[in-house]
Specification:
mainly beta; two-stranded antiparallel sheet; 1 helix; 6% helix; elongated; binds zinc ion
Length: 161
């Protein structure tokens, strides 16, 4: 699939000059997006607010998307819905003369949210996800996708309850 790469960089520099408590809402939608280095999403919907605090910016975000997964039973590729909600604090750099582990607002005032979104979405990736709850899987003998048709190895078939 062709990768659709969009920048998730957002200008937040003007928050410096806003009063504490100033809040702005952001809404973004992408039919398809590839987040470096490995996350391919469809129907990404991003809603977040940024609030000016004493220390920096408080982000409250809600994301939903469909992620390219492989069914653990029949091995087809399909899109699984995922969603997450989180808060993140971006500190203003001048508050930290020394090294800090916190996320900081870059000097140019642009935050690239790609890595953050990827980190939170990856936590939500389903383990052993299946294309449907009653996916029949594949035949261990001949590899037939049993959702599509039966095969002659019904006795040796792995059963899923
Ligand atoms: Zn399946
Ligand atoms: Zn078979």
């Amino acid at each position: 699939m062709e990768k659709k790469i969009y920048s998730l960089r957002t200008n937040v520099g003007y928050f410096y000059n806003r009063p504490i408590g100033y809040t702005k809402a952001f809404h973004q939608e992408y039919d398809e997006i590839f987040i470096q280095p490995d996350l391919n999403l469809k129907d990404l919907v991003v809603d977040f607010t940024l609030s000016r605090t004493r220390e920096g910016l408080l982000m409250r975000a809600q994301l939903s998307a469909k992620v390219d997964m492989q069914c653990a039973r029949c091995l087809i590729d399909y899109y699984a819905p995922i969603a997450c909600e989180f808060e993140e604090l971006y500190a203003f750099l001048e508050r930290y003369q020394e090294e800090t582990d916190e996320e900081t607002v870059p000097e140019d005032g642009y935050i690239d949210f790609g890595k953050l979104f990827r980190d939170y979405l990856l936590i939500e990736l389903p383990m052993n996800s299946t294309c449907s709850p009653d996916c029949k899987g594949i035949c261990m003998e001949c590899g037939q996708n049993l959702n599509e048709s039966e095969c002659e190895h019904t006795d040796s078939r792995v059963k899923y309850d």
